[in-house]
Design brief:
The chain is an alpha/beta fold. The protein has 6 helices and 5 strands; from the N terminus they run βαβαβαβααβα.
Length: about 150
């Protein structure tokens, strides 16, 4: 992988629906005519399970891997990490986030762009209740800002 590329890591679990939606929108950026105004980037999908990884790969990720080690390994190499806020909390997402995954995400030097989901029993004050699609669009827009030359 070239050093010029920005590495975006999308982490999801269960069925990978959130990650799939994020990957689809990021992949659209690559296909847009404005790509020459942005830094080159690669989308890595890391699923806590193979179903989530496969879903994100089909959505347009460049690379996909599954399991705890895949998340830990790719967290170290990424410039941007995105997913549900639960990826930072051990045992969230119905236990799919191990302490090692949460630790790897939190210790990574990557910029974290997290989507608040109260299903993880994590409530962040000051966050307004919005449709999931709006949170995803806002997260992707923030990623686009980081990709500007």
């Amino acid at each position: 992988m070239e050093k010029d590329k920005i590495r975006i890591l999308v982490i999801d679990g269960q069925g990978g629906g959130l990650g799939k939606s994020i990957v689809e929108q990021i992949a659209q950026i690559k296909q847009s005519k404005k790509m020459n105004e942005l830094k080159d980037f690669e989308i890595t999908a890391a699923g806590t399970n193979s179903v989530a990884a496969s879903s994100m790969l089909k959505a347009g990720a460049d690379i996909a891997a599954s399991g705890e080690n895949a998340v830990v390994y790719n967290s170290k190499k990424s410039d941007i990490i995105t997913g549900a806020v639960g990826i930072c909390f051990a045992y969230s997402m119905h236990g799919e986030i191990s302490p090692n995954i949460a630790n790897a995400v939190c210790e990574s030097d990557a910029v974290k762009i997290l989507i608040p989901i109260s299903k993880c029993n994590i409530n962040i004050m000051g966050v307004t209740d919005k449709p999931m699609a709006q949170y995803i669009s806002e997260a992707v827009e923030k990623i686009r800002e980081f990709l500007k030359v």
